[in-house]
Structures are given as structure tokens and as C-alpha cells.
């Protein structure tokens, strides 16, 4: 019976069955055949950056009306658009809708199983945001409620935001958003609860100091040591619980204790350094924020926020890339009179909050899926190889031995081939891709300043200056603002997120990348550029991945040129050839490019940042440094390549 | 031919197999407000509003100052203070307590609509000026007791999971003496464990 059915039929039947069992259909069916699909989210996002708020809002309103698993995401995006339009009631409503869902741990529970299943994608789960997104949703809710005098609920939102921030894995980064504590402290002071206000103010000071720029690297290092310390202590506990707990007889116990002592010393050193830094931090902005005579909060949102992207062979990791901020100082003038802003802004770095979220339980699941896929692919390749060998051997023998009956060998070969296909297909159904949905309309930084404004209309002028003290025209504004109340006024203003090259959607941007490396040490040979589009990912559409090779220009620099559709891209790898016999090396990096229509030139130099050491520019490296760079690069997986580009 | 038949069968299986993937079930179910819904969460639920309000309404009717009052004691509602971490309509409790008492004990207590005082004063003024008709003239009544309260909470979080203890305290305050003539509380604690996808 078996012999009469051709093996190719059996193979076809089994493969189709397997394919059928694991067939995956995108679950955004709600958007199929309807007005907008998830991919249109990109159009809405671009619309926002192009100041076409009507189009942008109408798309997100439509998507929000679908009440799908991305409901909170669409509402967060909508909240930002309404805020920009000055529609505060609508903005509050949208942010609140997202707030309730993001903070309900039980909502959309049924989608969770799908997300962690082998074939399900993480983005199948409901979007509830990372801790940093919950924090900023709570902040906007709190500020909007505060502005209309609902102090109780504004305080409640602050408390929820603080709680959300404690979800991050890394202890040092828990509850480190000073502005939430400050706002809570101010509200409690208004309510006459000075004791609690004082408590919150103390925590605000702590959070403010921890996130102060000079403390950030120290906190990062301390966090690493603390994580390591935790691991060592666990190891010690296990050893101590074992039979050979006598230190004299167990050298491992002694070694671990010695390591713990060393780690403690490192932590102490970092704590002391932080203490020294703290003494130099000016806490005057915090005091000014709490001064109840200041009846108005200026909330300035600067630039475009962090962008989440996938990386890894199967896209199983999610990471953030962010843009450099160009603003060095800000000047506010009210009715021609300069407001004293020097050192008075409370700065909240959205990008910093995003990248310090720490690991997640889901990362382990995605890694497991990726490993499964890798293993299945390996086994499939192995079976395929054995099948080919058997068939080849049988064919060779048949050539020289006319009496040889190779049918059994062919059957085994074909069966193995089928098994290889099946395992390969099973492996392919594993979906390890990380969820990259994120609140992309968030700014890079939120600056809050408290000041006194008399009720009435005022001409408010805001000017942003760069590091050279030059005014940035695209980040400056002047408008008439109406102050309605004696207390609790909030002025929202966002600057620097707009695209300054409108163009049309179909227009391409021609980008010229040039690197000034002399080529003596490293010769740039190419770059790999990947498109970042969370909406495409939701629609299961592949993003663009482009290899671009460098060539030497007349002036001796290396340059690459190409036209791109408008969008956000990331230089994911640099390919360089080292001097001497060195082969081409692929250096992973992450640099964001916002490509508008028109011609844009990017030029700059590449910085390599080894953990714990001062960043070095590869152009400054001498020949002798190359081997150490190469060996260090091989040993350390977490070498950061920071590209210092000038646009 | 066989291949085509196989493919047709497979297509059928495939189509039916992925049908369940195509849509997220979306339906609305009506449930009683005093029933736990299946959405869960660790916040204040309608069950808490009903249970707390009914408990308070019953409790108020046993207060000696209300039971033995000369004439109908007049009560006005003051905003409930929300000191919990939940953004809620904090007046929902006092509104429900008022509705319960107005429904079941109108002969024992009477509520004054102080939150509408501006509209009331405007209408009275119009009547006094003869702009609108008036069937009677009466004095505005003073408040004997204020009904108010506070919602407090203790929250804990770890890796996406939440624990919330919520305490709701309600009081009747004598507006002449500032005595708290009655106080009662309702408390609830909820713990929600986040699934691994959200940790």
C-alpha cells in the first residue's frame, strides 16, 4: 500500500497539513476592508509631524474606534495630537482611556496566551505600554486634571505613575521620575497636607539627583554591580546550604565571599562619587516648583521621542534608539519681559526613562522561541544533509553494481527529506519577534517651569538655543496665551518635533553619508540601513533592509548615496575593513535617521564606547590599538557604537 | 488530479483552521452592577460602590442624632477626598448613599441640593423679580450635617503585578459643633498577578 502511493504525494500531504496547522493569519481583521489599516498609523504619525493634525487625528480616531488590542496606543497618540491642537478636554479623555487600560493588569487577558504561544507574536497581546509609557501617560493625565482643578485625581494619577515606574527590573531605576513626586508634593501642599508633601518632596530630590546627567553613568555601573552582587549572594546561599558549608574546607565559599567584598567596595566607591556629585546639583528648580505663588506651569515638550526597533536574527530583541537633542538653553519672554528660567526647569528625559526599563520576563520567552527556531532549522538541515548523502551513496553504488536494489535507500532518503521539511516548517512557525509598539508621538524631553502669570492675555515667546548659543528657529515660537485662573494654570507647548521638509508622501529623500576617516586604520566599506515602522510590523509587512556600499570620493573621504522613501531608519551596522590583514568587520550600531524628502547630507565620525572606559573615536586610534579593539570587540557583546553625526 | 484534490481539501482545512484567528471576539454582555465582572483589575469596582453605599446608608439611619432629631435633619454632601491612586469620580459614593436614603428613608432625613445652589439662587431671584411664576416663597434651609468621606489606599507593585488595599471612610459632621456624629468605613484588598507577557 505504502509503496503504491508516490512519496512525493505523502510529502506534499504532510507538508501542507503541517503548514495548515501552523498557518498564521494576521489578527487585525477588524481593519480589513475597512477605511484604515494599521499601516495607516504611519501616515497619521507623519501627518502629526507635518502639522496636518486633522488627518492625523482622523486616522487615529478611526483606529481607536476599532477598540482592538492597540486601543491604548491609539489613544495615547490621539492625546498628543489633541494636546498640540489645544483641545485639552479631548486630550484628557483620550489619555484617560489609555490610562485605565494600561493600568488594568487583567484587561485583554485572553490575548496573553496567544502572545506567548510558539506561533503567536508578542504584538498579539494588548498594548499596555512599557513602564516609561505608563509614567508619561500618568504625567499627562495628572497635568491635565491639575489644570482644570481636579487636584485629587491629579494626585491619584501621579501615584499611579510612580507605581508604574517601580515595575522596571533594575532597582536603581525604580521610581526615578522626579516630576511625578514634585507634582504630587505640590498638590498635597495646596491641600494643606504638609507632612505628606514633605515626604514626596524628599523622594523628588532623590529621584532628581539619581537622574542628574553626571550621575547617570555612575548609577548605570552601580546597577550592574548590584545585579552581579545579587547573583553572587544567591550562589553563596546555595553553597552555604550545601553539605560543604565549612569555609575552611570549601574554597569556593571563600572565593565568593571575597568577590562579594570586592563588589561591595565598588558599590561604595560609586555611592561616594554620587554623593560628591549630589553636592554640586542645584536643587533650586525643585524649590521654585513648590512655590505656591507660582500659579502657572510651562510644560515644554522638546523634540521627537525614542523609537523602538527589533534586532537579532529573528527580531527577538527590542531596543530603543533616540535622537540627540540640540537644545542647550531656553528663554521665555512674557509681554517682552524675560522670565527667569536659568536653572529653573525640571527636565525629564523621556529617552533615558525608556532605555532604563531593564529586562522583561517576555524576553526569555522570545529567546526560547528563537532558540527553538534555530534548533529546528539545524535539525532540518541535518536531516536534509543525511537524506542527500544516502541518495547520493545509493546512486553511486547503483552505477557500479547493476544488481543493487536501491529502492529502500531511496525511500529512507525521501522519508528523511520529508522529515527535514516538516521540522523546518515547524521551526518556521515559531514567532520570536519582539513587540515594538510604542508611543511614538512622545517628545524626547519634557521641561516644566513654574512661574507667576497674571490672569489675562499674554504674548509668550519661547526661544531655544543650541550649544553655540545660536537660536534654533524651528524650535522657537511666539503666541498669545490666555491665563484664565489665579491658580493651577498649565501651558502646554511642544517644539522641534515637526518635519521641516514637507514634500509629498511619494517623494524620496536623497541621503549622502560621508565619513571622514582617513582610512589608515579603518576603511569604511558599507552600512546596513533598516527601516523602523511599528505599523508595518503590526500588519506583518516586512520593513526595508538596505545595504549601501561606500566609495572614495575625490576629496579622499568615503561616501555613500541613495534615495529613500520618507521615513525613520536606523543604521544597524557599519562594515569596516581594518588595516593590514584584517578582514571586513561588522560593527553593530544604532543611529536614527529621519529621512525627509529632498537632499540631506549626513557626515560625521564614529565613536566606539567600551563599557567602563572613555569613548574613543576610531579615527584617533593608532595602528597599535587595532588588535586591542578587535579582541575587546570579540569578547564584549555589549560594545556600544555611538555615532556622532552632524546633520 | 489527486494533487488538485489534495490542495482543495487542504485549502478548506486551512480556511476553517484560520477562521478563529481572523477576529478578536467582541461582544457586550449586560451584568448586574453588584456582580464581579470578568475584566478584573485591582481598582475600585461597581461592586464596591454598591456594597459601600448600602452599608453606609443603613448605618446612617442608626445614628442617634438622626433617629432622635427634632424634625427632619437636613444633610448636604461635601466632595469626597480621593487620596488613593485611582483616578475616579469620587462623588459616586455619596451620590449613591444619597439615592439610597432618598429612596428608603425620606421620612427620616432630607438632602439639600447645595451643589446646585447657583441655579437655585438664580431661579429664586427670577421669581422674586416676577420674571417667572412662583407657587410659594420659602427660606433657604441651613445644613444640619455634612456627609463626606475620604478614599485612601496602599499600593504595591512588582513586575507588573499589583496589590491594592482601599479604605473608604464616610462621616456625618455636625455643622454647628463640627462634631463627627457618625463615621463608618468599607475596605477591600485586591491582588492581581500580571501574566508573563506583561512582566
Amino- and carboxy-terminal Cα gap of chain A = 72 Å
Backbone structural class of chain B: alpha/beta
Number of helices of chain B: 5
Query: What is the percentage of strand-forming residues of chain B?
Result: 25-35%
Form type of chain B: elongated
What oligomeric state is this? heterodimer
Which pair of chains has the greatest number of interface residues, and how are they split between the two chains?
A-B, 51 and 43 residues
Q: Which architecture of the domain at 42-152 and 167-187 in chain B per CATH? A: 2-Layer Sandwich
Number of strands of chain B: 6
Biggest pleated sheet of chain A: 6 strands, mixed
From N to C, what is the helix and strand string of chain B?
HHHEEHEHEEE
Helix content of chain B: 25-40%
Portion of residues within helices of chain A: 40-55%
Poorly predicted runs of chain A are 19-33, 603-647
